[in-house]
Design goal:
The chain is an all-alpha fold. Helices cover 62% and strands 0% of the residues.
C-alpha cells in the first residue's frame, strides 16, 4: 500500500484472510483499505458487513469505509 499498489496489497493479504488470522479486525480493516484503493467496493462490503468491531477500531474507520462502499 505504501508503494501505491493497493491491488497487490489485496492479493498479498488474501492468504492471511483465508487463514486463522483472517478474523482479526486489524487484518480485515487493512484489507478493506487496500480494496478501496482499487475501488473494490464489493470486497469492502464482504470484509466489513456485520462486523461487531466497526465502531471500536481505528476511530470507526471501518464503519466509514463500509458506508462509502455501500454508496459507491
Amino acid at each position: 500500500m505504501s508503494q501505491g499498489r493497493p491491488y497487490l496489497a489485496s492479493r498479498l493479504l488474501a492468504p492471511t484472510l483465508a487463514g486463522p488470522a483472517g478474523g482479526e479486525p486489524a487484518i480485515a480493516l487493512l484489507a478493506a483499505k487496500a480494496a478501496t484503493g482499487w475501488e473494490g467496493w464489493g470486497a469492502v462490503v464482504r470484509l466489513l458487513a456485520g462486523q461487531s468491531w466497526l465502531d471500536r477500531i481505528e476511530g470507526g474507520e471501518g464503519r466509514a469505509l463500509l458506508a462509502r462502499a455501500r454508496v459507491e
